[in-house]
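Suppose a classmate hands you a notebook page containing two proteins, each written out with its sequence and a corresponding row of structure tokens. How would you begin to make sense of it? This section walks through that situation. The first entry is reproduced here exactly as it would appear on such a page.
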Amino acid sequence: MAAQTAAAAAALAVTLLAMCSAVTSCPPSDRAALLAFKAALHEPHLGIFNSWTGADCCHKWYGVSCDQETRRVADINLRGESEEQIYERTHRTGYMTGYISPAICKLERLSSITIADWKGISGEIPRCITNLPFLRIVDLIGNRISGTIPADIGRLHRLTVLNVADNTISGRIPPSLTNLSSLMHLDLRNNKISGPIPRAFGKLQMLSRALLSGNQISGPVPESLTRIYRLADLDLSRNLISGPIPSSLGKMAVLSTLNLDMNRLSGPIPVSLFSSGISDLNLSRNGLDGKIPDAFGVRSYFTVIDLSYNKLSGPIPKSIASASYVGHLDLSHNHLCGPIPTGSPFDHLEASSFVYNDCLCGKPLNKPC
């Protein structure tokens, strides 16, 4: 009887140990999905996938994190540029080829996907990532990813970061993107994206940074964009954006950086931009005309004002001298005329800030008035 009891106890212990092991390791389905994801990539130098062995993908698999309770894979964080030992040991940044396998979409509890700065990863963004309801971060910067942004990206209501900068993504910004009600950081810089900014862009009420420079985006700056209360950093430079600058941009509560340079904007510069909270203003290389508004005051604090390469005429406004601070000012390559004001900030500016105008005179130009 005692022998039977001991055998039963031993069997129970084995069963409990197996159950405990099953709970503390990742599910076989998640492990299989990660291995399929790995199989589509080739990383020849750092050996970051060397640790992807064993049954438990939650234990010391480089770049993989799991939920502590469910043991489901929650995060994939693979960066080609890092200060971790694996990079310092080889004295090189990462290089990886291949593509992002749709197998990643079988990781149903995935919260973040960071596959950044590998330089050689190509292929498209898997369409199926829009079926991952817990996704909060998609960071694919610095690869060679092509194709379009998934049309139904707007299904990811928890998404806070979408960064696909420095790739070769084409097509339009999908209208559904404006349904990303939690989005705080949008970075589409340096791709081949074309077409207009969606008219309903203003629905992105949590957005604080919108970085869309270096594309082929056309059409006007949508008025709805100026109603995003939290927007602090707007970069639409190096595109094909046309039409006037909305005056409501200067009435945005926290906007501090406004880069609209190298577009096809026309019309006058809104007065509101110079009495706003904007501190970094670049409107260079457009077709802006009229006079520079004489609207500077104590609220005007600018680290940069670049109005070069436009069609601006008339005098340099004297009220610039009443601004709290002006660091870099570039008014070159316009049709300005008259004496350059004296005092701050003009006493620390170089001649290059004023060259190639119609008839400016005074210091720092060697043209007496």
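The notebook's second entry, a different protein, reads as follows.
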Amino acid sequence: MSATLLSMAFLPAGCPRVWTLTAPAPFADETSCQCQAPHEKLTIAQARLGTPVDRPVRVYADGIFDLFHSGHARALMQAKTLFPNSYLLVGVCSDDLTHKFKGFTVMNEAERYEALRHCRYVDEVIRDAPWTLTPEFLEKHKIDFVAHDDIPYSSAGSDDVYKHIKEAGMFVPTQRTEGISTSDIITRIVRDYDVYARRNLQRGYTAKELNVSFINEKKYRFQNQVDKMKEKVKNVEERSKEFVNRVEEKSHDLIQKWEEKSREFIGNFLELFGPDGAWKQMFQERSSRMLQALSPKQSPVSSPTRSRSPSRSPSPTFSWLPNKTSPPSSPKAASASISSMSEGDEDEK
């Protein structure tokens, strides 16, 4: 059972349940139900071993809580989880006390109260909490222990405003969160004042609302225009780079495809026209056919049916042709030569 439900379980009979875990924590002065259970003083050892069954341990934490941040929330989480069953009351100092003892705040007291009400670890918020805790205040709210970091807090003429709480054995230390504090946040804003002033002018705030002079306003607005131009140039450069990258990728793909097609073309060319290519073989075949067609047919050397007479030559002779060196001496001799040639042809047939 949660601490909130336990704390409500021991209220007087007929007291209604005025809040749930889905609602903000109530203010102490608006709560009609007050803790009426017997309140015996507890030691830290007893609280850590387990509290009496009739009530939770009531833990109190106070502060300014200006610009509520994670460091505040972690401190309240530690206070809430100090004991197995605890009820966390958070006191928030008013603007008057804070401005008097600590300094000016960014958030007013109403805003700071509301910020605490919506923290999940807070069970109850006490408005206008005292700067120094008095016995009457502790008794009124039935506070068992006070949670705060252990660093001495010097203020209001005291070396440590929690000194008497520590001496009474009611102080339980928590740990600070390094790197985050209200002062750190304000320091960042002051350091980068021009940046935030330009930012808010761009968002529609007036120079009067920002307490900015006329000259600074014009300067900030000019700087905003320069920044816009730089941003446009940057966008153009990025788009140009993207376009160039896309062109390079496509060029690479085209070159790769061209190389593949070139290798394929060269391979086909060599296969067709190379030393052992199909075109050479086809050319040789056609050449051989043409040579065979153009070459004269050779006469057979011997006849299978009859043999030549020894008086005749094995190959056809052209004895009928007139001898250039010895022309026929007379017409009779020429006539005899022609008749012998005709007889030779008949024998051939």
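A careful reader of the second entry would note: The first helix runs from residue 3 to 9.
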